[in-house]
Amino acid sequence: MRPDQRPKAARPGGKRPVAGGGGHVARKRFGQNFLVDLGVIDEIVRAIDPRPGQALVEIGPGLGALTNPVVERSEHLTVVELDRDLAARLRQRPELTVIESDVLKVDFGQLARDGGQKLRVIGNLPYNISSPILFHLLPWADQVEDQHFMLQKEVVDRMVATPGHKDYSRLSVMLQWRYDMECVVDVPPESFDPPPKVNSAVVRMVPLASPPEVDLLAFEKMVAVAFSQRRKILRHTLGAWITQHGIDTDFDLQRRAEEVPVAEYLALARLA
Ligand code: SAM
Question: How many angstroms is it from 77 CA to the middle of ligand 1?
Fold first, then answer.
C-alpha cells in the first residue's frame, strides 16, 4: 500500500465530538469549552439560585450544561447563542427564548424593558471575548439584578484585585466602580470538554445601588491612559492628560497606576 493510501491515524487533539454533545464538534473560534463536571455544574447553579418569574438571560448556552438545570428551576430562560447549529437545537425547546446573535450586538436594556424587570445574566463565557462582554454590559448595570459568569481565573483575579496588588488593573477600576464582585466557584480545566489551557472561576457581580456619578466614556478613557504604562509613574501618562484637560488638582502623580484607589480615579474624571 502506498503511504498516501494508508488510513490516517486520529491526530491527538484532532476534531472529535464533545462528550454527550450529540455529535457536536467544539468550535474553537466560538470559544467552545463545554462544562461536563456535574458536581461543578451543581455548585454553579446553587450559587445562581434561579427562581420562577425571574428574568434570567444566559450568554452562550452551548449544549445546555447550565441551561438545563437553570430552566428546570426557573421555568423560562432567554438564551443568546451565536453558533447557528446550537441555536437551532435550542429553538426546539418551548421553555427557552432563543436569540441567535453575537452577544455584543444584544441590547440588554431592551431585554429588561421587554421583561418589565431587572435581568439576571449568567453564562460560561467564550474566553476570547470575555472582557468585551463585561464592558458591553456595563452601561446597563442599572437594569441588572446580578451577573454570574465563568471566566478565566486570571481575569476574575484582576476584576476583584485591590490597589497595590499586582492584578489591580484597568478592569479592576472600571468594574469596581459599578459592581460588588466576589469569586464564588473555582473550576479546574478537566471540568470541561475540551479542557481549556487555563484555570477558570465563577464571579458574582452585583451592581451597586448608588454608584458614584461619572461620565462613563470620559472615565474609561482616563483609566486607559493611566494604565497604558503601568510600570511608570503617572506623571508620564496621566500628567499629560491632566494638562490637556486644563485640570487644577493636587492628585499625586508620583504613584503608579496600580496604587491609586478607584475613588481617586473617579474624583479626577469628574474634573475633566
Ligand atoms: N454554556 C455552555 C457550557 O457551559 O457548556 C457553553 C459555554 S462555551 C465556553 C461558550 C458558548 O458561547 C458557546 O456555546 C459559544 O457558541 C457561545 N458564543 C461564542 N461567542 C459568542 C458570541 N459572540 N455571542 C453569543 N454566544 C457566543
Answer: 15
